[in-house]
Design brief:
The protein contains 3 helices and 3 strands; from the N terminus they run βααββα. By secondary structure, it is an alpha+beta fold. The protein has a domain of 45 residues: YefM-like domain (YefM-like fold).
Length: 82
């Protein structure tokens, strides 16, 4: 089911990025002139919306040593750059 939103020209011009964001999420925006629909903005079929940051397609596990303190040599490199 596709959700359609209707908005007048002035509203779409004022908040164009907002409406493009809705289109990117799969919604269709109908543009109206004086409340009479005349155009539509919709997602092109071959473009997939981007995944949110941090949502990897692959599953992975964080190793136990990830949370251990760094070796002194590395800490010194961070604290005393040359």
């Amino acid at each position: 089911m596709v959700i359609m939103i209707t908005a007048n020209i002035h509203e779409v011009k004022t908040k164009f990025s907002y409406y493009l964001g809705l289109v990117q999420k799969g919604k269709r925006v109908i543009i109206a002139k004086r409340n009479i629909p005349f155009a539509e903005i919709k997602l092109i079929n071959n473009i997939k919306p981007k995944r949110a940051i941090g949502q990897s397609e692959e599953k992975f596990e964080v190793p136990d040593n990830f949370f251990k303190p760094l070796p002194k040599k590395i800490l010194e490199a961070f604290n005393n750059p040359q």
